Amino acid sequence: MRSSFWNLPNTLTVLRILLVPVMVGLLWVEPKPIENVVCCLIFVGAMITDVVDGWLARKWNLTSPVGAYLDPLADKLMVITVLIMLIPLGRVDAWLVALLLCRELAITALRGIASQEGIVMAAETLGKLKTSYQATAIGMLLWHNRQFGIDVHSAGTVTLWIATVFAVVSGIQYFVDFFRKTTVVA
Q1: Strands (E) located in the chain
Q2: Which of 26, 45, 144, 179 is deepest in the core (most CB within 10 A)?
Q3: Could you read off the pLDDT tens digit of each residue along the chain, which spans 186 residues?
Q4: Rounded to an integer, what distance in angstroms lies between the CA atom of residue 59 and that of residue 62?
Q5: Do the Cβ atoms of 105 and 138 come closer than 8 Å?
């Protein structure tokens, strides 16, 4: 028997997608300090639901091809959109966002090709570290306010640089892994 699309994990994923235009609206012009906090809380909430919906889907055996497609899409839409919206606010360099965006597109395309070849390209440790550092960095860049004497923006920038290193290295790792799995040894 097929389960309904509208289960809790898929609903959380769709909610994350619906929050993307909300973030665009909030970041359209320079947010006030309280709006920075709201943006940060929405983003952190979205990242938490990313973890929770996958865990619930596996625990309740509600995994589906649609959910497996929408979950990473929701994550990428939120992360990429927020990074792009931070460029005109002067919170992140455009070239850095372009590099991260190119990496995401390249890995997504590579996974699609691998899937057609019957190869599973699971997330590796470096990719998971990239995601953790990137989400933390974006949260800090959204918060942007000085807190307890800490320059949260600068901390976010450094954390995003670390995430970028993990992004590049893990991207190379994905391609090396793909070519190892697709090369026929004669």
Answers
A1: 146-147, 150-151
A2: 144
A3: 456 788 888 899 999 999 999 999 999 988 898 999 999 999 999 999 988 988 888 898 888 888 778 888 999 999 999 999 999 999 999 999 999 999 999 998 998 898 888 887 777 888 889 999 999 999 999 998 877 888 999 999 999 999 999 999 999 999 999 999 888 544
A4: 8
A5: no
C-beta separation of 129 from 60 below 8 A: no
**Residue whose C-alpha is closest to residue 71's, from 1, 14, 28:** 14
Q: Say which residue the tokens 């769709």 belong to.
A: 14
What pairs with residue 2 in β-bridges? none
Buried b (16+ CB within 10 A) or exposed e, 24-60: eebbeeebeeeebbbbbebbbebbebbeebbebbeee
**Burial degree of 1 (CB within 10 A; 0-12, 13-18, 19+):** exposed
Based on DSSP, count helices (H) and strands (E) in the chain, helices before strands: 6, 2
Q: Could you identify the residue written with the tokens 């699609």?
A: 112
The domains of the chain, with CATH numbers, are 8-182 (1.20.120.1760)
